[in-house]
Amino acid sequence: MTTAAAPTHVLAWFPGDLLMDDAEKSCWELFTVQEWENNSLGEWLPGVLTRETSLAALRAWVEAELGRRVLELRIDTWRAALPTPTGEPGPWHVYPAYKIIVEPGADEEGEIAFEAAAGGEDGDADTPQPEHVPDKSRRAEALLQRLHDYVGDEHWNRWPAAHREAFGAAMADMTTNPDRTLSFGPDTPVPAWVRREFDGRMYRSECPSLALASTWEPRDWARLLADHPEMRLTNHYYAAPDPQAILAAHELLRERGLEPWFDVELELNLVDGQIVPEVGTGALYTPYTLSGDVQAEVSALLGDGAVLVLDTPTPRGEGMNGWEWW
Hints:
Layout: E1 9-14, H1 16-19, E2 27-32, H2 33-37, E3 43-45, H3 55-66, E4 70-80, E5 93-102, H4 106-117, H5 136-156, H6 161-173, E6 175-176, E7 182-183, H7 192-198, E8 211-215, H8 221-227, E9 233-234, H9 243-255, E10 261-267, E11 270-271, E12 274-275, E13 278-286, H10 292-302, E14 307-314, E15 317-324
Parallel strand pairs: 9-13
Antiparallel strand pairs: 1-2, 1-5, 2-3, 4-5, 6-7, 8-10, 10-13, 11-12, 13-15, 14-15
Helix pairs in contact: 3-5, 5-6, 9-10
């Protein structure tokens, strides 16, 4: 009797209306089986996917996220409830989920190939085994389709076709590290200095644009931009401050020893056929208390397009102070 393959991942509907009191936060969330069983956080899939999204579209999204082919999606459900004042669970709500089986990754595939090469029952030692090659072109196509569906034709057509194609290929080639940071893949045409500066310091972006990744580590942006003038500091937000004012504000905080950092989207840009990201800033933060004088100086530099925020949550943690203009 054949034993059914064990699921490798779980795709579950996250009910923002129940758990965060905000229906707009509802989305599909992708887990490894270990993350699901340990009640860990998964990978949110915000955007155009809804609770009613077709199975085919969900499959395409999962394949785009994992870079592997989905072999099977098994319909499932899960339950959630909020505690009552007595500590007992309140009414239970049932939500859709899928147990997923994906093709083996490089490590698992290598083990299978080794067994076959050794003359195991599933292979012949005299028969060359096919090398496992992720279908990057299929993943790029799915990524671009989902972005197009989200932004619509008008916005989509503002991006040159070459930029869209380069973005899809770069995202399909992107490597996810064990700590969930990102690095540019081996086939992505980026200068060595871009890899050196950003590999392992990037995170998945949720910006509906040609954003390769987000990054928010403190760094000497003035030095980096001066050393590499082909990389531009930009912003794409309505009424945002001037880029030079943004950099001047960052430098003012650095000079005061306040360890500032930008919340950045690394937007795709092509320079002589290579990807040199544009630095799209949306906020400037510091973990330290801002004196009244510093607040006034930086606010004057940034102008009315930036809003002062105090003790606010950010990707780098709670309790940050700074300015936002997204």
